[in-house]
Design brief:
- By secondary structure, the chain is an alpha/beta fold.
- It is built from twelve helices and 17 strands.
- It is globular, with a radius of gyration of 21 Å.
- The structure holds pyridoxal-5'-phosphate.
- Pyridoxal-5'-phosphate (PLP) binds at residues 95-97, 100, 129-131, 181, 185-186, 214, 216-217, 242-243, 252.
- Its main location: cytoplasm.
Length: 393
């Protein structure tokens, strides 16, 4: 008999009942070090007092109105994001998937309004992940996500990850935009080199097409810059954000230049919940915490510590781990065994990591984890490697 919860997940037999910073407490009392942060969502840790205060204060006043009215919390968050980024304008969603939907619609409407309605194609890349909606799975294009769900939304062209030559060849008078993650998350922490991101920007400029970046996982301070593309010194035309921006409260956003957003006039898009007072009260608190030079400097310092220790782990357990990859606190360990087995061995040692494609486990800890948490990460990942080695004997 089917479970009451639709069985689309293979769930680990763990039930967390409380969170404190980088720690999750299981129903049986065990304390797990959370290096997954709910897949890069709990960017400021669990039960962060500042976020709890922002949420509860707003909850006592007003949860929801509608985008039919002015929402000051939403305006404040949009202003903060515009101030801190390339963007001139922001639309709020409830998730990364919905941000992807709008990014696609925005790019197509841009060309429609420019009198080139045939420009609908979006160039995307192998190993990418843009969410589970009809357009999101078509954008990613992998068999794993799309099989059985056809007919797929048309207009996506799939190319090898970051292959700028393939991009040049794929350009045509149907091309509307390029859509890419600066660092693939689900795809296995695959970093697009700065030079390739710059090359994609140059291709877009030359062809006059739009560059859409999916920073749902790599954005919001995760790499040590507010947004990952800042490292390459370029800016996109459209950017998707979600995960970390709500610190655990569901909220996403599409950021865009005035030019890229020019087709999105009144009545062309909407959302019941997107940008409601509760979500934006939390989003504002997250932005205030993350978007300071001091906070981002700390992310970079901790990232250096973590990376160094992980390199040591690879050196001492070459039969388990072969490579550290990633940037900032978006790190991957390439595994010899199946990543699911390594994650499960981690559970035995009370440490949480997240599997990804390309035989990688992901480390996406809260950005404000402490040095003591990092020391615990090394101890627990070392114990995890030993668990695997003992099983191999
Ligand atoms: C998680 C993710 C999404 C989808 O976000 P949801 O909030 O799950 O809809 C899209 N793109 C990337 C890069 C992601 O990591």
């Amino acid at each position: 008999m089917i479970s009451s919860v639709l069985p689309t997940y293979n769930r680990a037999p763990l039930t967390f009942v409380k969170g404190e910073g980088a720690w999750l407490i299981e129903a049986d009392g065990r304390r797990f070090l959370d290096l997954g942060a709910g897949i890069a969502v709990a960017a400021l840790g669990h039960a962060n007092p500042t976020l709890v205060a922002a949420l509860t204060e707003q909850a006592q006043n007003l949860w929801h109105t509608s985008n039919l009215y002015e929402i000051p919390q939403q305006t404040a968050l949009a202003n903060a994001l515009v101030e801190a980024s390339f963007a001139d304008t922001v639309f709020f969603t409830n998730s990364g998937t919905e941000a992807c939907e709008l990014a696609v619609k925005m790019a197509r409407k841009y060309w429609f309004d420019k009198g080139e309605p045939e420009r609908v194609e979006i160039l995307t890349f192998d190993g990418s992940f843009h969410g589970r909606s009809a357009a999101g799975i078509a954008a990613a294009g992998s068999e794993k996500m799309t099989k059985g769900f056809g007919p797929l939304v048309a207009g996506f062209v799939h190319l090898p990850f970051g292959d700028t030559e393939a991009v040049k060849e794929a350009l045509s008078d149907k091309t509307a935009a390029i859509l890419i993650e600066p660092i693939q998350g689900e795809g296995g922490i695959r970093v697009l080199p700065d030079a390739d991101l710059k090359a994609l920007r140059a291709i877009c400029d030359e062809a006059g097409i739009l560059l859409i970046l999916d920073e749902v996982q790599c954005g919001m301070g995760r790499t040590g810059c507010l947004f990952a593309h800042e490292w390459a010194g370029i800016t996109p035309d459209i950017m998707m954000v979600a995960k970390g921006i709500g610190g655990g409260f569901p909220i996403g956003a599409v950021l865009a230049t005035e030019n890229a957003a020019s087709g999105m006039t009144a009545g062309t898009h909407g959302s019941t919940y997107g940008g409601n007072p509760l979500a934006c009260a939390v989003g504002n608190a997250v932005m205030r915490e993350i978007n300071t030079p001091e906070f981002l400097a700390e992310v970079n310092r901790k990232a250096g510590l973590l990376r160094q220790g992980l390199e040591g782990l690879v050196a001492s357990h070459p039969d388990v781990f072969t490579e550290v990859r990633g940037m900032g606190l978006m790190l991957g360990l390439k595994c010899v065994p199946a990543p699911g087995d390594v994650v499960a061995a981690g559970y035995q040692n009370e440490v949480i990591t997240v599997p990804a494609a390309d035989n990688v486990i992901r480390l996406l800890p809260p950005l404000n984890l402490t040095d003591e948490d990092i020391a615990q990460a090394f101890a627990r990942l070392d114990a995890t490697a030993k668990t695997i080695e003992n099983a191999l004997l």
